Write the structure tokens for this entry.
Amino acid sequence: MRQVLTILITNAIEAIRDHTGKVTVDIKSVPASNLPNPHVSHIGWMTTSEMFACLEVNDTGCGISREEMGKIFDPFYTTKFTGRGLGLSVAMSLVRAWGGMIHVNSQTDTGSCFKVFLPITAVVVPLQADLEIEQETYNAKKTVLLVDDDPVACEVIKTLLEHLGLTVIIAVSGNEAAALFQKHHNSIDCLLTDLSMPDMDGWETLAALRKINPHLPAILASGYDEAHAMNGDHKELPQAFLHKPYTKKNLENVLNRVLGDIARSSRI
């Protein structure tokens, strides 16, 4: 729930941009007969619950156009810039896993209202994996240094990596990554860094970390296609490239390849 709330509040704040505005959060209970229609988050949603908990996040921001409304829950869809976006898709996946739904009401230049409805039950339900990801077991416990200047993206990708059995250290800038790696380079097995970041981009971050450990395995992620992202004369190259938007299977395959190489080399 903390992750869902963080995603919704972050989007609300960004919708206000540099203008004066307000974000409000409310919680209440709602009978099933008062649920709004249509259910925006996913088609075909059905429930047998009679009461729902409602988490409501309102903002007075720029609003969502009719054209954008049908895309906001698509993975990696964004109105910011290439390669960004992940939050609302993850929020929808989490809410769906809990048997709930999300309703959105928005008008351009007026603001948006996101309502998360979760069934209220007296039955004790076992915890589910947040994103329904199968647990991957590697030969040994590995640690990934994740670098991305988007805090929401960091938390989402961290969740994915942890479900794959990995330990994750987060840095929100290349400078922070270099400082963390200086302290923990003996325990970090792989770098996963975004390409487009202010101050130090992915290439500069990789170069800085390779000065400390020339053999550090690295994965570079970007919204640009591989040919565009890899273009140029770069002294240090990653072991793998991930094109955003990437699926959980893409991430898993790349990690298996890179971390598998680590596991094999550690036994030599």
